[in-house]
């Protein structure tokens, strides 16, 4: 990933506020006491291990997951202006849809699911496909694409949604370096346009190089702020310790064993 990250100044205007949020599934909390504010125009990385709560945080923002307690407040942000790209494992690749039609889904909120596409809409779709470099794959079935081609198609769909807030869950997973460069260039473009972009990642080097703001998450907030200040060895070690503790807890290890792990 070669290009430098953008330096567009961000706003101090809040976009999403978390107030002591506990959230999870089937009564079991995944996020515990999350508090903080995403500001309009932020380019924010959410850094954490698998199971750290990154996807749950995104689903709290979209409204798919309701907190057990605490609040998630959207400031002048209709949910229709949120675009969410889940992990590829959450998308059914066997669904019989062409690449063109999958990208066209980005316009559904604008034109409806059952209306025909105008010439202008078709032109938008082709332009998005061309931008991500897969116009030649438009008639292929989405499920037969490589990992990189698939993610390019999903980013083309995001382009058409014209969202104010873009949520990306592990967007560079299983993609080649050329594709990663293309996708990070789009992220830079969105950020330069004043959109807010949040990406769930586990690559600390990528975060340090490309994202001005970082939330280190291990089911609770380890640190949140400017990347240069919060992405430290001490915070990464603490994140690893907290992660190991809840992993041990889920495996049924005793409190004594957990304390030994924490102090080792």
Automatic annotation (TrEMBL):
SMART domains: AAA (SM00382). The keyword Ion transport applies. PROSITE patterns: ABC_TRANSPORTER_1, ABC_TRANSPORTER_2. CDD domains: ABC_Metallic_Cations (cd03235). GO terms for biological process: zinc ion transport. Its EC number is 3.6.3.-. This is High-affinity zinc uptake system ATP-binding protein ZnuC. The lineage of its organism: Bacteria, Pseudomonadati, Pseudomonadota, Alphaproteobacteria, Hyphomicrobiales.
